[in-house]
Write a structure and sequence with these properties.
Elements lengths: L1 H5 L3 H6 L4 E4 L20 E8 L9 H19 L4 E3 L3 E4 L2 E12 L5 E11 L27 H6 L7 H4 L16 H17 L2 H14 L6 E5 L9 E8 L5 E5 L4 E4 L5 E3 L1
Antiparallel strand pairs: 1-2, 2-6, 3-4, 4-5, 5-6, 7-8, 7-11, 8-9, 9-10
Helix pairs in contact: 3-6, 3-7
Length: about 270
Amino acid sequence: MLESAGKKGAAALRVLDQTVIAADEQSAGRGRLKRAFYSPAKTGVYFTAIYVPSKNIEEPALLTASAAVAVCRSLKEFFGADAKIKWVNDVYVSGKKVCGILAEGHLGPDGKIDAAAIGIGINIYPSDFPAEIAGRAGSVLPDTFGASDNREEAQESGVMSFPRATRESFAQKDVRVKPEHDTLPLNLARDVSKKLFDILSDDSKIRAALDEYAALSFIVGKTITVLPVIGDDNSAYAATVLGIDKEARLLVRLNDGSERALSSGEISIKI
């Protein structure tokens, strides 16, 4: 969409600003490094938010960071979830990945990014994940959600503390049955997008979101394996995470005491 609009000029791109396309299923979902993103029907929401600023995007990594913060804020408000971030683009709940983010930019005539499509996939309901990801993938609502016989117990646990706009989706007495017309996924996509565009509307909000992004990281202080050349284990080295800087780079210390700032497009990490 961005590519075809870009060929028509900047005006066509501007028309797309803050457009959001959402689905409850993807047949060919993908994440970073062309990895497949499992996204079966009626278990989550998968959407793309288009951002076309008045000036070129100087720091693309801030788009991903801003989106991660928006997701964490919404998950907190909708579900009471204590969401955390794994640099650079994954959101975790209860130790499992529940959301992936992929930001891709459109290059203008000057070779700079003048528009971006920010893809966000959130696993809401429990699902039978493929064996290769079952150990690390999860859903915002716990596995016990489908087996719960007590609505009050579910509410008290925090997993049903939805805002008024979405609470009607769970009006049924038995929470084991999802409503025929489930409005929760769409409302969640709408809320995340609204928060994301609000962050991106002001430089000070972006900087504040980046501080929040760093604070929500659960890998600071941990030892990780850095893969500078994806798929080449011979290039791997161990490092300790020191923090995240103002450009959303990961700051690490190697075993020899040297320090590096890692950019998201250059490496992959394993905890």
